Amino acid sequence: MTVTPELREAMLAAIPSLRAFAISLANNVDAADDLVQETILRAWANIDRFQPGTNLHAWLFTLLRNGFYSRYRKARREVGDPDGTFASRLVTVPEQGARCDFEDLRTALAKLSVEHREALILIGAEGLSYAEAAQVCGVAVGTIKSRVHRARERLGQLLAIHGAEDLGPDRMTQAALQSAF
Fold first, then answer.
1. What is the pTM of this model?
2. Which pairs from 81-90 meet CB under 8 Å and 24+ separation?
3. 67 Ramachandran zone, left/alpha/beta (phi>0; psi -120 to 50)
4. Which CATH fold topology does 5-78 show?
């Protein structure tokens, strides 16, 4: 449907009423003006959905009301941060470290014996139980447990992981993140 001059004039004539309604909803003149503008733009873009012969004002008021409530729902999920203090405390750990960690893990896994690597992959990566892994490898459950334990110990040595504090960002990255506060 194309916008006829009559339809255009009717839309323009509705703006004062839309603005008054928007002010009553938003309690803010600037927000109301933005809401009216968005409503007119949405109506213009979706004019083919308007059925001639129906009430244009009701359709426009419905668009405005729906737009207001969409904004309201979105605003409820947002965190107010007018001075930027919250945003300044947000920190993202650099991603390139994960790539390096993955390469280090691959290199360390390659240094394990085939039996240890196989047991560790079946249990740790594939999620098999010890009994299932033992069946796959054709050995006793105790043997699988021993291989996994030794593989984890050797990986810890190769990756210089001695405790939980060694996991996550390295000490240099942790220090840089701490200095941001």
1. 0.45
2. 89/180, 89/181
3. alpha
4. Rna Polymerase Sigma Factor; Chain: A (1.10.1740)
Token pair 């690597």 in the structure block, residue:
117
Domain parsing of the chain, residue ranges = 5-78, 96-179
Reported CATH class of domain 96-179: mainly alpha
Question: Which is nearest to 3 in space by CA: 58, 40, 32, 33?
Answer: 40
Reported as a single tens digit per residue, the pLDDT across 46-76 is 888 888 888 888 999 999 999 999 988 887 7
Query: Is the separation of the CB atoms in 59 and 45 below 8 Å?
Result: no
Q: Rounded distance, CA 134 to CA 138, Å?
A: 6
Residue 7 CA, distance from chain mean position: 42
pLDDT digits (tens, 9 = 90+) for 147-156: 999 998 888 8
